[in-house]
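TL;DR need structure tokens for one chain.
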Amino acid sequence: MEKIEEIIRNTTEESQEKVDWTKAWSAKYPVLDVYQKEVNVPKYASEIRRMFTELQADYGYSEQDAMLVLKDILAHEYMDNRPKKRK
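>> reply
TL;DR here they are.
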């Protein structure tokens, strides 16, 4: 984990912008390569945009901070509500 954390700390915004993250992660998660052909993306995008804008207005967050907060909430909702694996 320390190596991953170090990479995160040392990665610049400029280098992040050069990466096609959907393509990079689709090697591990193939759904990322196909969902745009199957899902009504504008429907979900407009709702996400509404929440994004609301966070900025309600809490004075920058664009980046609002995105990070929404992303974190989504991750917690997923992790906290998925079925528990049995040992």
